Amino acid sequence: LPFYFDQIQDVYEMPGGDVDNKIFYAVFTSNVNAVYGSAVCKFDQTVINRAFDGPFKEQKDTMSFWKKVPDKDVPKDKDGLRPGTCVNDTSKLGSDVLGFIRARPIMYNAVLPVTHDDIAEQERYSPLYHSEDVVFLQIAVDVVGQYTMLFLATDNGQIHKVVQWVEGAEVKHRLLTIWRPFEKSARLEMSSDQVQTCQAERSPEEDSAFLCSNHIRTIVVHDKDNVYVCGSGAYESQDFTLSNDLDTVDTMNPSTGLALCPFDPRDNATAIYVKQGNPEGIASLYTGTRLRPL
Questions:
Q1: Residue 159 contacts residue 216 (beta carbons within 8 Å)
Q2: Residue 268: CB atoms within 10 Å
Q3: C-alpha–C-alpha distance, residues 182 and 237, integer Å
Q4: Which of 19, 158, 167, 275 meets the CB 3.0–4.6 Å disulfide criterion with 283?
Q5: Can you give the pLDDT at residue 181?
Q6: Per-residue CA distances from 228 to 72, 138, 175, 218 (Å)
Q7: DSSP for 165-185, written as a single string
Q8: Of 59-68, 72-81, 243-252, where does the model show the most confidence?
Q9: Are strands 159-167 and 67-68 parallel, antiparallel or unpaired?
C-alpha cells in the first residue's frame, strides 16, 4: 500500500534572496500509525506563489468529486483583488470574499518541490532525501559549494547529517553521520535522579516518559563551523553548540538555556542567526521561548 509524507514538521528558510525568490527546505513525515518515515523537500517561493495565484478547488457535497473553480465564480473585492490576496485591512473585505475563502480554502494546483532542472523528469519532483523508520522533527541547512548539508533532528534526540548533491542527471545523497548528543560521551546525558525527579513532578494525566526524555526543539547553522542546538531534557532547558562535523560538543556557558530553550518539549523555540545590523557589526544568534511558569 502507498503511504504519503503529508505531515509537515519543520521549515527552514535559506538566507538571502528577495521576498519573491526565497528557497525553503521542509521536513515531512508519514502517519506514525502506518509505515512511518520522513522526507526532505526543497521549495521555491515562485512556485508557491504560482499555486496560490492559480485556480481554487471545491467539492459541492460529500458525494461529489473535487473540481476546479471556474474563474467567473471567484469573487473580487472593490479593488479587484481575489480571495487570498494579502491586504492591509481584512475588515474591509466583503462578505462574499470571506464566504468564498471559508468554503474553499484549498488550491487546485499542488506546490511541487524542486530539485534541479537537469535531472531526470521522473525524479524532478521527488524528495531530496527520505528515510524509513525515522521521524525527523527539525531541519537546518548549509550550502558548501555544490554540496547541500542537511542537519536533521529526530524525535529521539539524534542529529543526522546528510550531504546532497547533483551529479549529471541524478540527485545523490549520503548519510555522513548520526550524532547522539545525549549519550554520556557527549556530556549531556541526564542522570537517573533527574529523570526520577522529573517524573515525580508530572501530573498523572501527563505522559511523564515523554516529557522527561531528551528533545531537540531547534537546530540552526550559525556559521561555517558550528551548529546551535536547543532543547529540553528531564523538563529542563539546555542549549549547546557543536562543530559542523558533529564530533565536538561545547555546552554554552552558562548552559541552562533559560528563556532560550523550552523546558517543556511541547513548546516551540525560535532561533535566528543575524549577520548584519547588530551592535558593533558583530554577527549574533538570537533565541527565545517562553519562561517557566512561576
A1: yes
A2: 11
A3: 13
A4: 275
A5: 74
A6: 51, 12, 20, 8
A7: EEETTEEEEEEEEEE-TTSGG
A8: 59-68
A9: unpaired
Q: 139: how many CB neighbours lie within 10 A of its CB?
A: 20
Answer yes or no: are the C-beta atoms of 289 and 270 closer than 8 Å.
yes
For 67, the grid coordinates are 473540481
Q: Which residues contact 54 (CB under 8 A, 6 or more apart)?
A: 107, 108, 109
Res 86: pLDDT = 78
- Tell me how far apart the terminal alpha carbons of the chain are, to the nearest angstrom: 50
Please name which of 156, 150, 151, 149 lies closest in space to residue 135, comparing C-alpha atoms: 156
Question: What is the C-alpha to C-alpha distance for residues 267 and 11, in angstroms, rounded to an integer?
Answer: 16
Quick one: which of 280, 289, 158, 276 has its CA closest to 236? 289
291: nearest Cα among 265, 271, 266, 261:
261
What's at 239, amino acid-wise? D
Q: How far is CA 286 from CA 229, 246, 268, 274, in A?
A: 12, 22, 14, 8
Amino acid (one-letter) located at 186: A
Q: Which amino acid is at 137?
A: L
Q: What is the pLDDT of residue 246?
A: 63
| Residue 142 contacts residue 164 (beta carbons within 8 Å) | no
Helices H, strands E: what count in the chain?
4, 17
Angle (CA) 209 269 48, round 5°: 115
| pTM score, whole prediction | 0.73
- Angstrom distance (rounded) from CA 40 to CA 162: 11
Query: If you write DSSP's letter for every residue of 204-253 in order, what string do you get?
Result: TTS-HHHHTSEEEEEEEE-SSSEEEEEEEETTEEEEEEEETTS--EEE-S
What cell does 254 get? Answer: 552558562
